[in-house]
Write a structure and sequence with these properties.
Strand order of the largest sheet: 1-2-4-3-5-6-7-8
Number of strands: 8
Helix content: 40-55%
Number of helices: 16
Largest sheet: 8 strands, mixed
Protein name: Alpha/beta hydrolase fold protein
Structural class: alpha/beta
Keywords: Hydrolase
Strand content: 15-25%
CATH superfamily: Alpha/Beta hydrolase fold, catalytic domain
Distance between the termini: 23 Å
CATH class: Alpha Beta
GO molecular function: hydrolase activity
CATH architecture: 3-Layer(aba) Sandwich
Number of domains: 1
Radius of gyration: 17 Å
Organism: Kribbella flavida (strain DSM 17836 / JCM 10339 / NBRC 14399)
């Protein structure tokens, strides 16, 4: 995987981040979702590098082999603001004053938070299969709760989900069926297995969700009340065989109050588009970036 890319561990503040980077040209950061690591981009990153970009792929804090700081009652160490600060520090360390950011699934929350908190640093924003946290939560109804029930399960702390998941992580995450090596690629699959079998990583991933229902929602509410918007060029992509359109209708309409000039379209893929439809995803990203 990742021919001609460099694998590093770079400490940013309190957190060491595992990061793979390569290529030359304008910098773009690729942020994975749950329960993946940066290796989810193995078929995307080299293609973007070949198209003339410097490509940076970190494991988010709490995920993969990046740091997993102790949490607190508000789950602040796993807030998207904390993760966005990690990202800015990482790009400082790699020497990039400005960069574009692409986030999928949980990574999309980190991506738009980076654009909101650090507008002077983010040249372009791409979100994939995600809408602002507060928008998703305010639209929650019986259908959403039934289809996205894991949000509420992961967020419990009195009877933590870690006990259930860690009893059989391979079964929980469909590691030998829909997320098997044929679907993910053997090396990406091996990295995925190492992550989901590590109880500390499972805890870190769930802390991400716990922050999402609390501190991340409040941060979104504060931004909306203050009239803050994303001003850089922005694009949303969504997997047409996922449930974005079923839940939200036109997902772009959900985003427009946050970034009025947003563009986007669907891609014929299941949820994990970087692994399922990398060529089409790269075409869309390269043209926009």
């Amino acid at each position: 995987m990742f021919d001609n890319f460099q694998l590093d561990r770079i400490t940013v503040g309190e957190v060491p981040l595992r990061v793979r980077h390569g290529g030359s040209g304008p910098a773009v950061v690729l942020l994975h979702g749950h329960p993946r690591t940066h290796t989810t981009w193995y078929a995307v990153a080299p293609r973007l590098a070949a198209a003339g970009f410097t490509v940076v792929c970190p494991d988010l804090r709490g995920y993969g082999q990046s740091g997993k700081p102790p949490t607190d009652a508000d789950h602040t160490p796993y807030s998207k603001r904390a993760m966005a600060n990690d990202l800015v520090g990482l790009m400082d360390a790699l020497g990039h004053a400005t960069f574009s950011v692409v986030g999928h699934d949980r990574g999309s929350y980190v991506a738009y938070r980076t654009a909101l908190d650090h507008p002077e640093r983010v040249a372009k924003l791409v979100v994939i299969d995600g809408v602002p946290a507060v928008e998703a939560l305010e639209r929650t109804d019986a259908k959403f709760a039934a289809q996205w029930w894991h949000w509420w399960f992961f967020a419990q702390s009195e009877k933590p989900a870690e006990r259930v998941i860690c009893a059989d992580p391979d079964a929980w995450y469909n590691a030998w069926t829909s997320n098997g090596p044929d679907a993910l690629g053997p090396e990406n699959h091996a990295d995925f297995l190492a992550a989901i079998r590590d109880p500390a990583t499972v805890h870190g991933m769930l802390e991400d969700y716990r922050a999402g229902l609390g501190i991340d929602r409040r941060t979104d509410e504060q931004d909306r009340a203050a009239g803050r918007q994303i001003r850089c060029p922005a694009m949303m992509l969504w997997s047409t065989r996922d449930d974005m359109e079923e839940i939200y209708g036109d997902p772009l309409e959900v985003w427009k109050p946050w970034c009025p000039q947003i563009v986007g379209h669907g891609i014929d893929s299941t949820h994990h588009v970087a692994e399922n439809a990398p060529a089409e995803l790269v075409k869309s990203l390269a043209e926009f970036l």
